[in-house]
From TrEMBL:
The UniProt record lists the keyword Cell division: no
Protein name (record): Alpha-glucuronidase
All copies of domain Glycosyl hydrolase family 67 C-terminal, residue ranges: 450-672
GO biological process, one term: xylan catabolic process
GO CC annotations, alphabetized: extracellular region
Amino acid sequence: MGKAWLNNRLIHKAMANDSFAFSPATVAGGDAVRLQLESDIVNWLKLPLELDPEKATVVLQKQAGKFDSDEAFQLSQKGSQVVITANTTNGLMYGFYELLREKVMGTKLNTDLQSPSQPLRMIDHWDQTDGSIERGYAGASIFFGKPDKLDNPDVGNFDVKHIDGDIFRHDRTRMITYARMLASVGINAVSLNNVNVREQGIELITPKYLDGVDEIATIFRGFGIKTYLAINWAAPKLIGGLDTSDPVDPKVQEFWAKVCKNIYSVIPDFGGFLVKADSEGEPGPYQYGRDHAQGANMLGQAIKPYGGLVIWRAFVYNAHQDWRDRKTDRAKAAYNNFAPLDGHFADNVILQMKFGPIDFQTAEPLQPLFGKLRNTNQMMEFEISAEYLGHQIDVNYAVKQWYKMLNYDTKYDDLKDPHAGAVLKETAVNPAHTGMAAVGNVGMSEHWTNNPLAQANLYGYGRLCWNNQETPEDILHEWVALTFTESDNKTQSTIYKIVDTSNETYRDYCAPLGVGFMVVPHYHYGPSVNGYEYDRWGTYHFADRNGVGVDRTMATGSGFIGMYSDKLSSEYENLDTTPESVVLFLHHVPYDHVFANGKTLIQTIYDLHFQGYANVEQYVKDWATVSGKIDDRVFESVSDCLKQQLADALEWRDQVNTYFYRMSGVPDDQGRLIYE
Ligand code: GCU
């Protein structure tokens, strides 16, 4: 076993493999530049340096101020040489990875200037200091926990020096490989710990743990990635010996100023804080009668001298709903809390909002704050970990969904480009402080993710952050080519076909048409049609004998639809112009309602569920054909996952169809088996 074995389990291994390098390369721009490159890039990429420019095949050319973005790069051909030009080392690194990608794929050199769509491209780990991961499905944390807790003792763990009481895993090999993989797709920010900050997690910001954080930050720094920490809002009380965490109290302000001073004395390029406040029982400024801007700006002030950021989550709700109450609506919570605060947040504060109004469901319309806020830095948040998307058991290429959300038309006529991804920049206080964030999906498991195919989401997320316009299909072509490098075209295209349709497939056999939350409560995997139906958090589908769905219209429902631009509100207010994929999120629809394609709602529910299951049956057959054509362990892991997916898709199909058959009394028009 050993490193090579580890890397073999790494999908998109062409970019993450230690031994892959071009040779020889040279550096233009003088000794100072060369030395920096040597440490920052050449070492990491194992790039043999050639000081004679004539002999080089790749020339790295650093020219400060050449491009608008310090992360941008351009490739050009000069005789037999490829020249990578960038303002900074990080730009050269991104250029180098692009060149690697093109070489492996055998495509023509792309000589366009390449510059990231979003300045902040972040992964949020929900890792906990005991090594577990909230909503983690790929084994233990790669950052925290004792080596003896490894899921698979053969994996990683090569350089561990561990002493009792230490919360860090110190698995440098694993972290370096991870950092390289993230850098190769353009990720430049990582938050290490869970947003629900508990136990020693609260103390990560104190000197006791800063050396451990610094060990990780130092690895990430080499790959152009800044390290962030999630903090507990009540830290002044919990660990600071104060009797309050009120943001206007000078003692609280001093506490945070000191925290920042300590952190930056150890980690001079620390990224900043990620904060979940007043949300799902977490403490926050409301407790002291302060609003979110007061809370966030106080932290912003403390970290400002060091150039740090405060990323403040908008996942704030307190629906306390009763099933008889049709006006209280959790979907309105973020808007109600944050729309009135537009323009109140400091320049170094960013509001991080989940892409939809509720919670990472299989289909949701866009969070209406995008486009509504005009003077606030914003990030859009996704969940790569797949909490509601099959726990990395079911194959589910969520890049499709994220692409849709980023390119969602907010229909504000006064915006230059009303598509959500572009809106982020146009409506920011500081366009450098916008971007995307996603809950990460890796752990200590053999393949980094549980289902090896789930790695396509990590790869795709990074690529999509870098270029919001790159289609999920193009991204998937790249991933398959870079990952299954030794496989023949037919094998690659079989894998492509399975992954390509998997997001729709999963959506189709789960809760129908955007209604969401028919999952097993708390666990969030597998069907439970009424599992959350009488829950006080307002996650209802309101199915009755006549129809299903949540009436969020302005005319008769909760009024949520009125939170969108006038154009979008009037489209969504009308059932006939509402997109079918989210129709039950926005309307209570009778079972006999006929959609534009001539099908009734009830028949659509049946058909989607039968189709979703049939697709998985086909995946199982197709996957069997790649046996012997790819790494055996990867083959077997995916086979095991597909076996479970097939059984679970059947459960979904039958439970959902049976439920709606019983409710509506309408049989399937094709006479397929639906249980009574
Ligand atoms: C979901 C998830 C929680 C998580 C929360 C969040 O509700 O189930 O585990 O803490 O999202 O985004 O903060």
